[in-house]
Amino acid sequence: MKADVVIVGAGPAGIFTALEMLKKGSRQKIVMVEKGRAVEDRHCPKDKTKRCMNCKPYCHITTGFSGAGAFSDGKLSLSYEVGGDLPNLIGSDLAQETISYADAIYLEFGADTHIEGLEHEEERKEIRKRAIHAGLKLVDCPIRHMGTEKAQAIYLAIEKYLQENGVEIYFGYECKNLILEEEICKGVSVSNGQKDMEIYARHTVVATGRRGADWLEKLCAEHNIAHAPGTVDIGVRVEVRNEVMEMVNRVLYESKLVGWPKPFKNKVRTFCQNPGGFVSQENYDNNLAVVNGHSYKDLKSDNTNLSILCSHNFSIPFNQPIAYAQKVGELTNMLANGQILVQRFGDILDGKRTWEKELAQSNIRPTLPDAVAGDITAAMPYRAMTNIIGFIQAMDHVVPGFAAYETLLYSPELKFYSNRVKMDTDFNTSLQGLHCLGDSSGWTRGLMMASVMGVLMGRKISEEG
Fold first, then answer.
1. Which among 412, 390, 384, 414 is positioned nearest to 403, based on CA atoms?
2. For the chain, how many helices (H) and strands (E)?
3. How far, in Å, CA of 448 to CA of 79, rounded?
4. What is the pTM of this model?
5. Which of 2, 25, 16 is nearest to 165 (CA)?
6. How far is CA 37 from CA 7, 32, 61, 156, in A?
7. Mean pLDDT in residue range 249-267
8. What DSSP state is assigned to residue 209?
9. CB of 153 closer than 8 Å to CB of 39
10. Which of the four pLDDT bands, split at 50, 70 and 90, describes residue 70?
């Protein structure tokens, strides 16, 4: 098959590459290949079974059109200060300008017009003052919350728009390798298990998201694509009663706090806060179960959950940060018999495991009912655990009650980012014709910044014809 552009991965970066090319009036042939299913065919059986079924060959929450976006909490961060390091590559002004542009597209396809975090100025100042006293930094970031169920409808509308305007999308096809001639990328070879295809194109856009970070890392090593070891985030998902987070939820909706707790002073941050949300499980390759969180527009729980992530940057000679994080996750899964582990914060400080009967007696009832009570500290690296404990205790000064005995910690919460692919400002890699976008590139984190990268890629390709 011949095309002008082949896009590997139908997450936000790949979607917005194709979308922008259409909006620019490009008549180039666009082919998109996606390992998972179309949005309308993505269904998690846990809705009925109430427990994770460890779906094969992939998890429907993480894989398919829009990637994890359709089943995430659907929050769009509207500040260039949030979402990775792309502004360092393209400049903060262009990043912020393109965020506004991409946001308008989400609105066009049905996103909620309300923006969280712009009101209650005096109360925001009070939260910031508490954060400063606790040694934390509050990052101002307006949020447009689509909601898990609404995000699926929005991405479905985008999917249909792309197909109706000539974008060929092949679902169920996995990219096996790049097609190379000397130092030039000519396309990709893909397979659905029964049929193999070679797709030749002038531009090959790899946008496989966090789900494909490990695969892209191996691809970089195999084909000598210039890259540098990236960052992995290892942490926990914290769950507290809504009453504890009431002020922060109302004023900020999602608090983005960053700290560098002693003694290690690694970067630790909050991420993906879900007021009235639900803790969830996602499955990656090799039966790796990781924890995440969702927040619906209509369905609400009594709890708020958010992740606390500790960033790990490795230096010579170690260059396998993703494998390191996976080992941490595997060890935690082993202790929980393949499930997610949950422990009360007070039990961690007391040096004891948590028992099921203790959870049943607590004010906080887990929104992930099949999480296994146990001991997170038996698997979590000392450095990461120490950083997390220090950060939670600092958070307690900002949100009194956050470090309560009954506060729940779920593990493992892992964020895989590919080794940072070296690219110029037009997203050209060391292989001519190859571009890497979104979270798999190591440059972005989250829906909005990945969408921004796709917009800019689409513009660049459109300019060339």
1. 390
2. 13, 21
3. 9
4. 0.84
5. 25
6. 15, 12, 11, 12
7. 93
8. T
9. no
10. low
Task: Work out the percent of the chain whose per-residue pLDDT is above 90.
Answer: 75
pLDDT-based confidence at residue 72 (cuts at 50, 70, 90): low
User: Which two three-digit tokens encode residue 7?
Assistant: 């896009």
List residues bridging with 281 in a β-sheet.
291
| Joined tokens for residue 8 | 């590997």
Q: Any idea what DSSP says for residue 280?
A: E
Rounded to 10 degrees, what is the CA torsion of 260, 266, 267, 271? -110
Q: What is the dihedral of CA 41, 44, 45, 46, to 10 degrees?
A: -160
- Distance, CA of 303 to chain centre: 21
- Is 78 in contact with 143 (CB distance < 8 Å)? yes
Q: SS3 for 372-431, per residue?
A: EECCHHHCCCHHHHHHHHHHHHHHHHHCCCCCCCCCEEEEEEEEECCCEECCCCCCCCCC
CA pair distance 300, 249, nearest whole angstrom:
13
Contact partners, residue 115, CB within 8 Å, separation at least 6: 78, 142, 143, 144
What is the rounded CA–CA span in Å between residue 111 and residue 224?
A: 41
* Strands in 123-241 per DSSP E: 136-138, 143-145, 168-171, 174-181, 184-191, 196-206, 227-228, 231-241
Q: Is 40 helix (H, G, I), strand (E, B) or coil?
A: helix
The residue written with tokens 């948590």 in the block is 354
What's the length of the chain? 465
Amino acid identity of residue 409, one-letter, is L
Which one-letter amino acid corresponds to residue 414?
L
Report how far residue 362's alpha carbon sits from residue 373's, in angstroms, rounded to the nearest whole number.
13
